[in-house]
Amino acid sequence: MVFGCFLAWETRLVSIPALNDSKYIGMSVYNVVIMCIIGAPISYILSDEQDASYLIISAFIIFCTTGTLCLVFVPKIIELRRNPQGTIEKRMVRATLKPPKRTDSDSDVSDMQEQIKKAENDRQIFIRRLHEREQMLQVLIEQLGDDALGDVEGHPARRPSKPRSIERLRIEGKAAVGSAEEKVD
């Protein structure tokens, strides 16, 4: 019985339904243990009555073996009636004793990897856009000429090192447009 319990415990995580009988084997072992616990004292008490003792011991033995066989084989017969071809539908077949990996952790890892790839792609796109805008800024600064660039920073070849506030750029932009219109007149 101990060896049967050991085998049932070791095969409890097998994911092939035809091999995973550990629950039914455990119930069979429980059935045998209960019958032995009940049958032994009754047999001892009825030791003087040979016919009654024989009848009760025989009934316990028949009940134990029949119950064990039913617990092990009836679920397989029911499964065979449900699925006569014996194919496994929507089940992962693994012939190992290791527990199957949780799909939650797998999906979390794959989701995290997808997010990392997306973030890296977005970063590359933003870097490309930044370089394009910097090149466009350089072209616009060259079109404005040395006077406009000198007004911006004081040095004709340098871009502004500090970002300006939006309000300051709007004010300076209006003043630059106004002074450009005065020069044209």
What does this 3D model show about the protein?
With 185 residues, the chain is mostly helical. Among the domains are: 2-82; 145-185, no CATH class. The protein has 6 helices and no strands. The longest helix has 42 residues, at 103-144. The chain is rod-shaped and about 125 Å long. 2% of the residues are buried. Its main location: membrane. Residues 102-129 form a coiled coil. This is Putative gamma-aminobutyric acid type B receptor subunit 2 isoform X3.
Overall pLDDT:
75
Reading the helices and strands in chain order gives: HHHHHH
Poorly predicted segments: none
Portion of residues in beta strands equals under 5%
Shape: rod-shaped
| Number of extended strands | 0
Binned, the helix content reads over 70%
In whole angstroms, how far apart are the ends?
Answer: 110 Å
Q: Number of helical segments?
A: 6
What descriptive keywords fit this protein?
185 residues; mainly alpha; 6 helices; 73% helix; rod-shaped
Describe this structure in a few short sentences.
This protein has helices at residues 2-10, 22-45, 50-82, 103-144, 146-153, 166-184. With 185 residues, the chain is mostly helical. Helix 1 packs antiparallel against helix 2 (22-45) and helix 2 (22-45) runs antiparallel to helix 3 (50-82).
List the helices and strands and how they pair.
Layout: H1 2-10, H2 22-45, H3 50-82, H4 103-144, H5 146-153, H6 166-184
